Amino acid sequence: MTVRSEPAQHAGMRASNLALVLGEVARTGPVSRARVAAHTGLTKSSVSGLVTDLIAAGLVAESGPAATERGRPATALTLAPGGAAGLGLEINIDYLAAMVTDLSGAPRYHHVVRRDNRDREVDEVVADLVDVARTAARSAASQGLPLAAACVAVPGLAVGGTLVRTPNLGWPRVDLAAAIQDGTGLEVELENEANLAALGEMWFGGHGQNGSALRDFVHVSGEIGIGGGIVIGGEVFRGAHAGAGELGHVVVAPDGPRCACGGHGCLERMAGQQEILARAQVATMADLAHACEAGDQTALDAVTDAGRHLGVALASVLTLLDPAAIVLGGAFATLAPWLSAPTSASIGHHTGATEPPPLLVSGLGSDAAVRGAAGTVVGRVIADPAAYLAQRPASRVGPP
Hints:
The protein has 14 helices and 14 strands. With about 400 residues, the protein is an alpha/beta fold. A hairpin with a 2-residue loop joins strand 11 and strand 12.
């Protein structure tokens, strides 16, 4: 979540300094007004006025006391637990999901609807997603959480509010953000699910050292489709046309089966969730995990083969990007006890690296994208509280 770190001196000073103060509270709270002033370079009187505005807006709360400073104990400032909330939504190939997080990024509501969205019309899926959003909004309202906006994770290429390409759903180019906004009344942002999963992992995955976030890594979303979220310097790398990270369509077996994208031997066809289940001769991921735990050789061989193909794709990623780590997410996180070793061996074989970067396992699993979506919304509020205040009262999700 991007926040300002130094005071503004020119136009937009109040807006910039509101962001500066709220960002400091988000980073270091509970914190006193005096320490906010010391850390930001703003005067104590300026901080006091800005804090008053943020409290009135419901974004900052007073608790106390803070750590005793010289003189008297100070009242501590924290992010308001009932302040602006973010609604994260996800359209995936075989499920829909919703999550509400408060300003701190803590989940306050989460729901997943298992539904195969292949061969369904866009309007049908949007209608279902709006229903899921309305249920989430009712939960937020019951908790006193005003929704600031919504961010939707999608399994394809998103440019602005338009879903440009979705190989596994076969949808035409569609202005998806506008359709969801019409159904919810909320401002809607659209983003690729792998990118949001990477952001969710960076913000909430707990992989950093000494309290700092992991800032240079590739997150691999292993589902029916496979996506790669690339984070460089704490920012998602999207490429010139927003198409970076399409790891699932990296060719790992040129003579392999035809893929939905039109290619042959793509990673998704060799190591996607559907292919692993078919080779393991089981129906669900839970069945597969149980089979592996029981030592079923067919299941173990299927996961091992997937790991080898994944390693081929990741070897090229490591050679090109030199990330500090690879994070295995989604189904790959579930299979990590049996997948990590063959993946690492394959990476070593195809790169010759004696010390490849670590393969980390996502603690968020399949929830990473929807949590990253909700976190994106609250991150924008913290980065620009003046914009949030200007559009209050927040739009409300329409009646069911």
